[in-house]
Amino acid sequence: MKKKTYLGKLAVLITLLVVILLPLGAQGAKGTQDNISYFSGRVETVEWDTQQVENFEKLNPSIKVEYEFQKDASNVIKVKIASGQVPDVSTVVTQDFIDNGLYMDLSDQPFWDRILPSVKDLCTDLKTGKQYKVATNITMGGLFYNKQLFSELGLKDAQNWKEFVANLEAIKRAYPNKTPLFLGGKDSWTLGHLIEFWAHGVAKQQLGIPGSRQAFLDNAVRWDAPNGIMENFAKALLELRDKHLINADAITATYDNQKEAFASGEAAMINQGMWVVGDIIKLNPKMETNIGFGPFPSVVDGLKSMVLCAEDSVYAVSATTQSPDAVFAFLEYLFQPEVQKSFSETRGIPSSFIDVEANWSPIKDDATRLVNSYVNINFSTEAPSGLSVDDTGRLIQKLLHGDYASPAQFAKEYQKIWDSAYATSN
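^ that's the sequence the OP posted. Answer follows.
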């Protein structure tokens, strides 16, 4: 009888333990869920990013990736940072974000062994010699043109501003209904890149890449110098406007309008980076063999034409992330050779990973020619973050709208907001 009583009590005890511990166990399993945030400003890869997040979560059910894309990412992230919501992984990297300790030091990460040394150099912070970002790709920026049209008119790469204007005028004479150079200025970053490539590019050519990076960091370039870089840049753009060599709706047309105009043959030339090629071919597959790629002529006499050749598709990790293991698991997945092959081909740009073989673009030959023929410039990563490409693009909107009395006034305004942004970031 005692044995039965003992067994009965034991059964009751086990039942109680099961009732008590099961919810605790369920809560414990739920507690292992890692939530990480991934913030991006790359419009060309929204679908790709969404798909990769889904793939990663299927392979890693204990990690949830909250993916967010913003067109105006460079400004939206400032709001997030101000409210203490630094994304765990971000594609938006600026010098003052690094200076303020927002990003983790990635210098000891194993993925550097797979990345081109030149790309690692471009990812190296001048102040500390460390890497707070990693770039998965190399990109180029220049002027894309309709090869058939250029061949028909006997046009070649412009070696200076005069030749560039002459090319556009020849197109206008032969095809009055086409736009020689189409700008998609409503998306202000597309205009901001004109300063990045055409104006900042002059300083980079004059000072060299290391020298210009340091000069930008030290605020040593005088953008408002009389008859200087920015005044000449403004004169050049106004010349194109006044001669009707750009579209009349340059400040209201969108980036999508720009791509559509080029893909349809309405526009003879556009300013963009390699990231645009894939979208153009999607819009019109026949354009695959008809996309030419040329350099930016200097707006300052006596200098050579230039081509952007720089690190692209960067990632940074929050220095205060609560889930570093989950973050690096996500990056490890993204950096797999087969995933990077897909990314490279989606963006239409070469990979910086030495073990990734990708058929990235039909403009490979032109890209190689430009790298070897013209001055290579980089992105202005040391420029103050308070002056993003969106911000500078809005200045050009005002310039083309006629809001400045003269190119010299535009140069002074640019210097003013540059100094203000520099002071804020320092």
